[in-house]
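Before relying on records like the one below, remember that each one covers exactly one chain. Contacts with other chains, cofactors or solvent are not represented anywhere in the record.
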Amino acid sequence: MRMEFREAVALLTESDPVTLGKAADEKRRQRYDDTVTFVIDRNINYTNVCINACRFCAFFRSEGAPDAYVLTEEEILDKVGEAVAAGGTQIMLQGGLHPGLEFSFYLQLLRHIKEKYDITIHSFSPAEIVHFACLANLTISETLKRLQDAGLDSLPGGGAEILADEVRQRVSERKICSADWLEVMRCAHSIGMKSTATMVIGLGETMAQRVEHMEKIRALQDETGGFRAFITWTFQPGNTVLGGDKTSSWDYLKTLAMTRLYLDNIPHIQGSWVTQGERIGQLTLAFGADDLGSIMLEENVVRAAGTSYEMSVQKMTDLIRGAGRKPAQRDTEYHICKKFE
């Protein structure tokens, strides 16, 4: 029987984390063996200039700010080359919504990356896609098709935060609404472009709003089947206008477990060491996660909020083995590239 909305809200509100964790781990076990995957990639934040000025973001800068920047194409290509040399199979280009960069900049960049390197480009959040469409006066589908033709392989799920517009209006009033985020993903899936989905908790949302977010993702997945994975992050309040306290690790683990139980049509649930650190990242493997995301050769957005953890292939494989699981490197499509004995 598929879990219903009210049941999920009640469990999130009333159940203890360990009980939910056991149930989620059993669901994972029914689907997978004890292999836990990770990918080697690099996040390249091509600019920190952004017109959205989200209250929860410590990374963005206004155009003209002393520390505002835009990476040149040469700098970006050098970073891609370093990722390839380090064994990376994927890059993630993400940045602010810069009012002065033309759509042609992104198309040319994608083409030149693909001409020079054999690497998957998993890039640009739905908010960026909407911004590009506005710049070029194109529909969302036309924008995605042109990006795909230039070399874009798949979309990350960034910018979802909580897909409840009451929350979005409070923390990021200029950002696209939940319907727009979902429509970008629907259009991407319709042209054969797969994606991931994310959720950020700790923004003052209710448990019902968290489940509302999951329900919207689950419904779209029923329709398109285009989501490969779901990732839960926690809001990092340092250096942000919104401020406040971090949500607890228990709250994170409990919510993570619920994503495995509720999102029964999404194959992979990813645990986050990036916001939680190695030890809680390791614990996610007992709460429904079958993947630990990326080594992340570079990460700037979470770091800007004062949270910084380092990871290496050795650390990652040791962490997975320490949880009694078998580590394996994957690619963007979750094909196993290498197993570690």
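Strands lie at 35-39, 41-45, 90-94, 120-121, 195-201, 227-234, 268-270, 291-294, 326-330, 336-339.
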